[in-house]
Amino acid sequence: MSDSIVDLANRMFVGPLWPASILICLLVVYTILAIVGLVDFGFDVPEVDLDVPDVGVDLPDGEMISVDADLLQGLGGAAIRWTNFGRIPIVLWGGIFSLAFWGISYWLWHSFDSDRYSPDWLPSILLSVRNFVIATGITKAITQPMLGYFVDPPSYDERRMIGGTCEITTSEATPEFGQAKFRTNAAPLLLNVRTDGAHIPKGTEVRIVGF
User: What are the structural domain ranges in the chain?
Assistant: First the structure.
């Protein structure tokens, strides 16, 4: 029995398996604590703060290169959003990622990598990064169908729409008839619109003043 445990530990804690094995051990401990009631599973979707501070790099000649924080924030936010991190409960996302990270690391090391690489620091770090990227892709694929259960569709009520703009899509909009598309982060909304007296041609951007 003890020999089996030692053999399992030797197979788990080697080379690029170290980060994944530590992560899976933390997941097991957290799950046990949650089962006995010492911590909460926390199946609430958190709000992820993606604020990025201004960054500057000093050059030898004293010049300053300013990095556009909005661009960095947009890229970082898009990358995190792509992984579905923060869009479903962190515990669920972390559990799926941990299992995928450990499974990929274990399988690749004992099936392929151990014959090609030594379990030294540099190869292990590079292989861990590769495994991390693969596990992130797997987590994305698994969690994508779950979004409908945790992400509420945006609501478009009077407060949100008044003051916004839309584009006339019919040949014209009149006080009696007209349609326009209201742009959203997903598919645009098709609205029935009425003007306050003018006849507005297709393609015109108009402002919503009543709802």
Answer: 2-48+85-150, 158-207
